[in-house]
Design brief:
about 400 residues
């Protein structure tokens, strides 16, 4: 597969650690702590402020547990945006780790103060808001990252690079699946950090399609470089009673008529985080599974299969090698992918704030536009299921 030029391997060094604020993530939260740990692991961020809860007592206790100075602990994100923007040592960016229905308002509050944004997915609960955030990002020139963290695994970047280099030939099929079991527990017993995910007023029109289906949509388009054009979806509720789907099966079409499938369920007994992509070309195929993320399976037509392991050299693309932190045999996992993603966000934000120009193609982090495409995918899938499986457009 050739040897890459190692002279461009390293990312540019940091001028300083950037200052991160977090909205959400207080006691009972899961994803907020993941954001903070990923930021710290990148060695390019200090977490120095937070509106970790809208309840003042919880915000204060959580902020103290995070070792934040008390004058940087807030219970109102609007106050946080205004006060941090006034400080000489104010935050450089905010991480939004709250329920889906709040993402838009929080992002607008910080963007209006000139603060860069990192948002959890799905970006918003409706396409109108998502497109407006894309517009605001373009108008302001701010950096807006969306945390599709699986795309920051080293071997996902390797798969993307191999497809770009034509090692699979012409793409013929794309199949993505994601199976979990946690929603087999009734929603009222699943805990505060999970129960909100099945409430339409907080998440919008879909549960599992928004929660993990958006990862499948993004992974398929990110790895192949092909835009998804349309979807035909069938929704099911196969676990405990809930107002939204917990399982969905979809046929999709990518640009050029390339067919594919997405299969998702959060009530698949015995599974944990079974997220997998398989891409078939007319010369070879690739397979990657996030429960075993160190390895990428490359299978040429009528030839021996190859298993590529994460590391440097031996055909590993520079875009993947930049995310290698340990030698082969010393596993890296999802926490490292979060660190990788926060490293890209930091490089982009520092470059914007210092007026530095980065080499074209250096960064491949998911942005507001990719977040908006994810929202469009959710709406198209819901519309399709409600219409009995009609094809619906995923194009904005």
């Amino acid at each position: 597969m050739g040897t890459e030029d190692r002279s461009t391997l390293a990312f540019p060094p940091a001028g300083r650690r950037l200052r991160l604020g977090v909205v959400g993530g207080g006691r009972g939260s899961f994803i907020g702590k993941v954001h903070a740990r990923g930021a710290r692991l990148s060695n390019r961020w200090d977490v120095i402020a937070g509106a970790l809860s809208s309840r003042p007592d919880v915000a204060l206790r959580s902020g103290r547990e995070w070792l934040l100075n008390e004058d940087r602990i807030y219970s109102d994100y609007r106050e946080m945006a205004a006060r941090e923007a006034e400080r000489d040592d104010g935050i450089d960016a905010v991480a939004i780790t709250t329920p889906n229905n709040t993402h838009y308002d929080i992002a607008c509050a910080f963007m209006s103060k000139g603060i860069d944004v990192i948002s959890d997915k799905p970006l918003t609960t409706n396409l109108e808001d998502a497109v407006d955030l894309v517009r605001r990002q373009k108008d302001t020139g701010l950096i807006f990252g969306v945390t599709y963290a699986y795309a920051a695994h080293s071997m996902v970047r390797q798969a993307r690079a191999m497809i770009r280099r034509g090692l699979l030939g012409k793409i013929r099929q794309v199949h993505v699946e994601y199976f979990q079991e946690w929603a087999m527990v009734p929603p009222d017993q699943a805990g505060a950090g999970a129960a909100w995910r099945v409430k339409p007023e907080l998440v919008g029109r879909a549960f599992t399609t928004g929660d993990i289906g958006t990862h499948c949509h993004h992974m398929g388009t990110f790895v192949t470089g092909l835009e998804m054009e349309k979807v035909r979806a069938e929704f099911h509720t196969l676990g405990p009673d809930k107002p939204l789907e917990d399982t969905a099966f979809m046929h999709v079409r990518y640009v050029g008529g390339v067919p594919g499938t997405i299969m998702i369920s959060q009530v698949a007994a015995g599974t944990h985080c079974g997220f997998q992509i398989r891409v078939f070309g007319d010369r070879a195929s690739l397979e990657w599974n996030q429960e075993n993320p160190e390895y990428l399976h490359y299978k040429p037509f009528d030839a021996p299969a190859q298993m590529l392991s994460r590391g440097e050299g031996a055909g590993i693309d520079v875009s993947a090698a930049r995310f290698v932190h340990m030698p082969r045999g010393h596993p890296e996992a999802l926490s490292d992918a979060w660190g990788n993603l926060y490293e890209e966000f930091a490089i982009a934000i520092e470059a914007r704030r210092t007026g530095s120009k980065l080499p074209e193609g250096l960064l491949e982090y998911p942005d507001a536009w990719e977040g908006a495409l994810g929202v469009k995918f959710i709406e198209a899938a819901v519309d399709s299921a409600e219409a009995g499986g009609e094809w619906k457009s995923c194009v904005i």
